[in-house]
Write a structure and sequence with these properties.
Elements: H1 18-24, H2 27-54, H3 63-67, H4 70-81, H5 85-95, H6 103-111
């Protein structure tokens, strides 16, 4: 996913909890879904960042080269400026872009 094009805020925002209850009917269930999605986003972003930074890794341990690598510093700064995974996940949830299901509810529906 392209997190650069997300419309999530970069700072903490006070949210109306009614927005989260509409989808699931339970605030705690919504928070659990957002938390799991946030972990997925964080793992994807970390993997992408490490992949880009590994392109600059060298086999020698020269301290001067490590401090002079401006491209690596710019990549790191770019990822630091992105919205946090929790904010991205919350925005995705509000926008209806998160797919979730509750297996316990599916079992109960089959028994009726």
């Amino acid at each position: 996913m392209d997190y650069k094009k997300t419309n999530a805020p970069t700072t903490t925002v006070t949210r109306n909890m009614a927005d989260f209850v509409q989808e699931t009917g339970n605030v705690y269930e919504s928070v659990a879904i957002i938390g799991k999605r946030s972990n997925q986003i964080a793992a994807e972003m970390k993997e992408e960042l490490l992949k880009k930074l590994n392109e600059f890794s060298s086999t020698t341990d020269n301290l001067e080269e490590q401090f002079e690598n401006h491209e690596q510093i710019e990549i790191s700064r770019f990822y630091e400026r992105l919205p946090k995974p929790t904010l991205i996940a919350a925005q995705e949830f509000i926008d209806g872009k998160v797919y979730f299901r509750d297996p316990s509810k599916e079992v109960n529906d089959d028994e009726d």
